[in-house]
Design a protein that fits this description.
single chain
Length: 137
Amino acid sequence: MLVANVKRSLVTLGLLALAAPAAAQFGGPPPAPNTGVPVYTRLTGAQAGGNFTGVIDPPKGQFCYIMNVTGTNTPTAASLNGENGASVLSLGALSGNSSGGCQPIAADLAAAILANPGAYYVSVPTAVGAIQGRLSK
C-alpha cells in the first residue's frame, strides 16, 4: 500500500512538472482574433506596374497596406479612389518604389470598401502616367 501511494504521488508530481513548462511555453489565453480583411490589386499602366496589398480592420478602425511599383523611378503620392474618381484615402508618398504603413479609416468607408471592393481603385501618379488597379478580396 505504501508503494502504491508513493507511485501515485510520483505520477502526480510528474504530471505537475510537465504542466508547468507547458503553461510557460504557451502563455496565457490566446490573443484576440485577427479581424482584418485583406484586399489586393495588381497595378498596371503604360510603362509601369506593381502590386498593392491592404488589410482593412473595421473593429480597430485601421487600414494597413504595402505597395511596390516597378518600371518607373518617379512614382509620387498614391491614393485610394472611389467610383467617381475622387480620393477617399491618401496612401502617402512612396519612398523609392515602395510604400506601406497603417492609418485610421472611418467605419463607414471601411464597410463600403469591404461590401464592394471593385468600386475602389489604387492610383499611383508617375511621370509617364498613372498606374492603377481595382481592389479585390
